[in-house]
Amino acid sequence: MEWKETLRTDVLIIGAGLAGLKAAERAKRYGLDVVIVDKSTGRTNLSSVAGGAIGVVAGAWQISNPFTLRSLTERGILGGAWEIKYCKDQRMEEITAMEEVPLQDELAEFGCVNPRNMKTYGPYIRMNWAATGPLYHYVQKVGCKLMKFFTVTDLLTVDGQVVGVVGFESRMGHFMAINAKAVVLATGGAGNCWARNNTPFRSTGDGHAIAYRNGVVLNAMEYESFDAWIIAEKGIPNYWIPPSYARTMGNVLNAKGEDFLPNYIELGPKATLKPGDPFHIKYGTPVIDVVATIARAMAMEVHEGRGDDGAILVDFSNVPDEVWYSEPKGIAFLHLMRDFDWKKKPVHMYPGALGSYGGCKITEEGETNLPGLFSGGEVAYGEDLKYTNVFGTRAGRAAAEYAMNASLVEPDPIQIKEKKDYLEKFLSRPKSTDGDPKAIRDAVRDLSMEKFGVLKSEEGLIQGIERLGDLRKVASEKMYASDPRELRMAFEVESMFDCQKMHARAALIRTETRGVHNRLDYPYMDNDLWVKEIRIQKVGDEMKLSTAPIRRGYVEIPKGRFPIKGMYKK
Amino acid sequence: MLDQEIKIVIDYKRCIGAKCLNCVDSCPREVLDWDKEQKKVVVVNFQECLLCFACEEACREDGNDCYKIEGAIRKEFQPAPRIDMWGGAREVVPPISV
Question: Which residues of chain A neighbour B34 with C-beta distances below 8 Å?
Answer without folding.
Answer: 485
